[in-house]
Amino acid sequence: MSAQLLDQVRLLLYRARQEFTAGETAANELDDALAKLDGPLKVALAGKVKAGKSTLLNALVRERLAPTDAGECTRVVSVYEKGLTYRVSARLHDGTARTVRFRRDEGSLEIDLGDLRPEAIERLVIEWPSSSLERLTLIDTPGIASLSADASARAVRYLAPDDERATEADAVIYLMRHLHNADRRFLEAFHDQELSQASPVNTVAVLSRADEIGVARLDAMASARRIAERYRNDPQIRRLCQTVVPVAGLIAEAGGTLRQDEYQAFARLAAAPRNEVDRLLVSVDRFANDPDGCGLLPAEREHLLVRFGLFGVRLSVALLRNGVVVSAPGLASELASRSGIEDLRTVLDTLFAERRTVLKARGGVLRLRAVLDAANRPNEEVESRFEQIWANAHEIAELRLLNGLRSRQVQFEADVEEQLERVIGAHGHSVDRRLGLSASESRDAAGVRARALALIGEWRRLDSHPLTTRDQRDALEVAVRSAEQIVAGHS
After folding, report:
1. Comparing C-alpha atoms, which of 137, 115, 142, 141 is closest to residue 126?
2. β-pairing, 203-207 with 244-246?
3. Number of DSSP helices (H) and strands (E) in the chain, helices first
4. How much is the pTM?
5. To 10 degrees, the CA torsion angle through 45, 203, 39, 340?
6. Are 250 and 336 in contact (CB under 8 A)?
7. For the chain, which domains are there?
8. pLDDT digits 0-9 by tens, 457-488
9. 121: which strand partners?
């Protein structure tokens, strides 16, 4: 059904495009909307300065591409997309584009803007032949609440435009070290209007630099997971994003880019006398400045701190000392596993990638709505088709209901709400995720039908209760239809 929905939206955009001549702003907007329907999902990374956006992007790409220092390029929106070759171009506000020079320094990109000032650049486009960018185009945005008001404003304008334009991002990963008022205000800017492009459905929060929550102790990630769970159950957070995932960005990045010489440095530390190494790892200052250093030069220790952080150094030494890993690939895999990055990849797959066509379709109709409102050129046929898709497409109805449940516009008892969210795809679109079944149970067609029919019966009884409101009845009807589709698919 999702493919059919995308085709319907494509035809609607084509029909609307016929109303405008080439060169008009509306025509350009609709051409761009049509091109987006067939491209990868665009996921933007947002957050305050030093939240770890560039580090997380590198971890997701498994390459050290995004610059992590406070250079000029971090003040500009940067789009990382799959390309046939290596190329960096600057798209300027005047509509022109210029190829810019770049080089790699120890893996990271160093982009030379030449005589271009960041204020003149709408975005940088980095084309890279990486398999990690086949399904997702990643967008690194300047930090909000930055000392540079202009850089902060660029991020806000891109992700939460204050005019009739829709943001280009299909989904948003919002990084926060803890829930600050600036984080809350920025997330709330996504949900000002009923047809807002961003929503809890396409926003995931990342508790970034999670290892720092536990003061770089070896159990730091366990502490971070408990805090993330508390945030996930907070009604205010649920209203703003779909879930919260803790990630230790530095070791996530290092897990995908570990070098042999770094592994050897850790192996030397693990082989040194335990009491000397433990004394060295008491603090960042001691590790960096100790005159002995357990055989590592100051420059080597500084490099390890920059690349892994104190938590990553402690963890790597412990893994090698205890025999958990015995090679560089083994250490890289273990660091990635313990960083939380694989949990985030799973979330992106189940909540974004599996929902790609629906998010694309939703983005297309929202973009059309914005164009029509801005152009102020009514067309009864286009308006009618728009309303039919928006009102009748079940996949979009599921997204609207999930938004309504998360934003508390429609409310139920907690157990009923959990059932509704699950069956409309809040935790993924497979039958086992929608019905809360194990993998083996989902292979039993009769059991699947019985579970879905039981839910339908419960919701029908609730629908007929005299105290059930109209909004609740509408919500139950959407969930019933989702369950009925599961029954039809297993008959």
Report:
1. 137
2. parallel
3. 22, 11
4. 0.80
5. 60
6. no
7. 40-248+342-350 (3.40.50.300), 259-336 (no CATH), 410-489 (no CATH)
8. 999 999 999 999 999 999 999 999 999 999 98
9. 92
